[in-house]
Specification:
The protein is α+β, with helices and mostly antiparallel strands. The chain is 29% helix and 27% strand. The strands form six sheets. Strands 4, 5, 7, 8, 9, 12, 18, 20 and 21 form a nine-stranded mixed sheet that branches. The N terminus is likely disordered.
């Protein structure tokens, strides 16, 4: 692909941070060769239905106009409806419409003060080839079927759309050299035991909840631009048309729970190497500090190799770490992460740690999804613990300050926030500081303390079994508790109630359970899962 180079680099003198906590880290790089233990392109039947369609299939033709900051196209989704009468889609770009109420301090923290509106306009929707009523209310699209569908019958819904990109510091925006599209494409709402999940786009955490699907996109961009996405560009069919001077990419993403992309001009290039069975690209820009770029790439490769060893090999053929704008430091999507642009100018604590954290999300969010709205800790606490575990073995001396600060916030959380808990929905958090201290620090501290008693490898082995049990599916908080219950042989609920629910009356039971686990682990020498 244009502008790519291959490099295996060594990093020294990294300065790193994660979340709101600062640390210093220095390390070198290594490469681990391993083949994906299960290909993401293999046939799958996660819903357990015999034959036919087993997961949704998204097919889209889209054209991206970087100059106008618009995307238009048509999306067709084939799926087995959870309701015979209608289906719902999330239209997340409508959170940024002109009439949206985005003036709270939390929205300002997410989007910044200087912003321009954006939205997604929907054309005539069809279901199974027939025009059907479509009702848009805020970020929700309701599509009614012409007649009730027989149980188990497949449906195909086609949605023409035009997206006007907002300008802000968030997950979907642009600058003079790139457009980054996160949560941009209409996506099926989940229907679980509680009913349809039509949650709004909240200014807290990552307010998303989606199931795995297959994606096939044809994406047109002007000549002179490049593409990185959830799909596999290294295997994409690329066709250049004349005289329009457009490049059409045909890209696939198999068994992924969203599809994100970045369109970049020719000032972007990539460091590329193969880690195990996956091609890893770090996309940087002319003018970035070369040593910083190499260090960030090194960190991505080393953390990727560590998580693959600890939690199971990565099944996707490509992983992109891409420089974008945005407030967020980093944002995870399947097969691609967005990294804030300022961290490529000079090595900083926050920028380096963000790469390790977002890479861990490829396992805890990517491979195993969860309800990020009602149980944000399920992916974030596990991810932040995994980040700490990686950093400790990467360079113990330089990681010490980060870990001690994280543990300090985690251990104080029950006193700092006596009216809150970790295991609560996003709307219950009053601000980003409480969210970070509870969902990141407290949850990660819970697992870290267990690692001090059991050994890090043994805690990692439990998490590996959790990943294996829910790979390509959804995991819940109860599933995490069950994984630790099975590892010890006695109910882990008191331990999680003490740490996540601030149940001080459970402290004694929690300690007894953790010690029982330590004894059980000592009777299984060297066992890693």
């Amino acid at each position: 692909m244009t502008g790519r180079t291959r490099a295996v680099v060594a990093a020294a003198g990294l300065v790193i941070a994660a979340g709101l906590v600062v640390m210093l880290l220095a390390a070198g790089v290594g490469n681990q060769e391993a083949q994906p233990e299960e290909s993401a392109s293999a046939p799958v039947n996660p819903q357990g239905k015999p034959g036919g369609l087993t997961i949704p299939v998204y097919t889209a033709d889209v054209q991206v106009d970087p100059e106008a900051r618009r995307v238009h196209g048509s999306l067709t989704v084939r799926f087995r409806p959870a309701d015979p009468r209608h289906v719902y889609f999330h239209l997340y770009p409508n959170a940024f419409r002109d009439d949206a109420a985005l003036d709270s301090p939390n929205w300002e923290y997410v989007l910044g003060k200087e912003r321009e509106a954006g939205e997604i306009a929907i054309g005539q929707v069809e279901a199974n080839g027939q025009p059907v009523p479509a009702e848009v209310k805020g970020t929700i699209l309701k599509v009614s079927f012409p007649t009730a569908l027989p149980n188990g019958q497949e449906a195909a819904v086609t949605i023409p759309f035009e997206l006007r990109l907002p300008r802000n510091n968030g997950r979907m925006s642009y600058n003079d050299h790139a457009l980054w599209l996160g949560n941009w494409l209409p996506i099926l709402a989940v229907k679980d035991e509680a009913g349809w999940r039509l949650d709004p786009y909240l200014p807290m955490g990552d307010p998303f909840y989606s199931e795995a699907a297959d994606y096939h996109l044809r994406i047109a961009i002007p000549a002179g631009y490049q593409l990185a996405s959830t799909g596999v560009e290294s295997r994409a069919v690329i066709t250049e048309t004349r005289p329009s001077r457009q490049k059409w990419y045909e890209v696939d993403g198999r068994r992924v729970r969203d599809f994100a992309l970045v369109v970049m001009d020719e000032t972007y290039h990539a460091l590329t190497e193969k880690v195990g069975g996956t091609v890893l690209n770090t996309w940087w820009q002319e003018g970035d500090d070369p040593q910083t770029v190499k260090q960030l790439h090194d960190l991505a490769a080393r953390s990727f190799a560590y998580y693959s060893e600890m939690f199971g090999n990565y099944p996707y053929p490509e992983y992109d770490v891409v420089k974008t704008g945005g407030f967020f430091g980093g944002m995870e999507y399947p097969g691609i992460v967005f990294i804030q642009d300022g961290y490529f100018d000079q090595m900083s604590t926050y920028g380096a740690a963000v790469v390790a954290h977002e890479t861990a999300h490829q396992w805890f969010y990517g491979l195993v999804g969860s309800d990020e709205i009602r149980e944000a800790w399920v992916d974030e606490s596990l991810t932040d613990y995994a980040t700490m575990a990686f950093l400790e073995q990467y360079d113990t001396r330089m990681a010490r300050s980060y870990i001690s600060q994280r543990l300090s916030r985690g251990r104080q959380a029950d006193a700092l926030y006596p009216e809150l808990t970790v295991w609560q929905p996003l709307e219950a958090f009053p601000d980003w500081k409480s969210y970070s201290d509870l969902v990141y620090a407290r949850g990660a501290t819970m697992l870290w303390e267990l690692g001090r008693k059991w050994g890090t490898d043994r805690v990692n082995a439990v998490l590996r079994r959790y990943v294996e049990a829910h790979r390509f599916g959804l995991g819940t908080g109860r599933d995490v508790v069950q994984a630790f219950t099975e590892a010890v042989g006695t109910d882990a609920t008191p331990y999680f109630e003490y740490w996540l629910g601030f149940r001080k009356d459970k402290r004694s039971e929690a300690e007894v359970w953790a010690e029982a686990g330590a004894r059980a682990m000592r009777n299984q020498p060297g066992k890693k899962g």
